């Protein structure tokens, strides 16, 4: 748990019932004023350029699929980038696989959410 979250919980625990109510009301007020917008439910249309590096493709795919948590994809993406950088695997081939990786992750999420992929 983050330090900020622990501090917030400690503040909440130290308050009486009225203080807790006020803290929650204030937190809800802040959330409505400063909340980050929800990512789009569908992939963005960011076409693949004719010439693209593997790293640029990874950035493009993260931008194309902002609704995905990229942390679970990191291991597979790192393996593909390493195959390109250290083992000389072709950029186009690696980018194709990165696109497939992100596409599968989106399809799985859409299936779980009941969203149409």
Describe it for me?
The protein is an all-alpha fold and 117 residues long. The protein has 2 domains: 3-34, no CATH class; 54-113, no CATH class. The protein has helices at residues 3-14, 17-34, 54-64, 71-85, 91-113. It is elongated. It starts with a helix and ends with a helix. The mean pLDDT is 91.
Q: Helix fraction?
A: 55-70%
Extract low-pLDDT stretches.
none
- Broad structural category: mainly alpha
Shape: elongated
H/E series, N to C? HHHHH
Question: What share of residues are in beta strands?
Answer: under 5%
Number of helices: 5
Averaging pLDDT over every residue, what do you get? 91
Task: Explain the layout of strands and helices.
Elements lengths: L2 H12 L2 H18 L19 H11 L6 H15 L5 H23 L4
Helix pairs in contact: 3-5, 4-5
TL;DR of this structure?
The protein has five helices and no strands. The chain has helices at 3-14, 17-34, 54-64, 71-85, 91-113.
Looking at this protein, list some descriptive labels.
117 residues, 2 domains, elongated, mainly alpha, single chain
């Amino acid at each position: 748990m983050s330090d900020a979250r622990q501090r917030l919980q400690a503040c909440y625990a130290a308050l009486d019932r009225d203080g807790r109510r006020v803290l929650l009301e204030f937190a809800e007020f802040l959330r409505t004023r400063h909340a980050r917008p929800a990512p789009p439910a569908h992939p963005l249309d960011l076409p693949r350029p004719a010439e693209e590096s593997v790293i640029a493709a990874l950035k493009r795919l993260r931008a194309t699929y902002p609704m995905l948590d990229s942390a679970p994809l990191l291991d597979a993406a790192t393996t593909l980038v390493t195959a390109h950088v250290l083992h000389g695997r072709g950029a186009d081939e690696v980018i194709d696989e990165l696109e497939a990786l992100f596409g599968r992750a989106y399809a799985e999420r859409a299936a779980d959410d009941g969203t149409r992929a």
